[in-house]
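Batch job 17 of 40 flagged for manual review because the log was empty.
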Amino acid sequence: MLLTVKHSLRFILILFLIFNLIGCATYQEARPPASDGKDEWFASDKLKHFSASFLIGAATYSAARWGDASKDDASIIAFSFSSSLGIVKEINDEIRRDNWSYKDLIWDFMGGAAGVSLSNAVD
């Protein structure tokens, strides 16, 4: 299958995001437990939240467009899916570690919106 320039750029963008996410997800830092009460706006876990949501938003948008959804429908589907996963992640954090973070959730929303917006612009 021969890819058009538009699809080639989208494929390269998705590969770049996957490698970025793998690097963020595999980075481990020894830190005290999350119950120390510190939840900063700019911490290493915020980059992970943003990157994961960005990738999920971009990939979902691309999948929806390849499934013949309109640009508007694909944007709604992708942002909704990305945001839902962020909410589920925070609910899981609350249940398992008593560590709900609205700041993490905001970074999830910003990452999903950025991924969808960039994918929409490239489309």
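Reviewer: the log was empty due to a logging misconfiguration, but the result itself is present. The longest helix spans residues 71-97. Unflagging and moving on to job 18.
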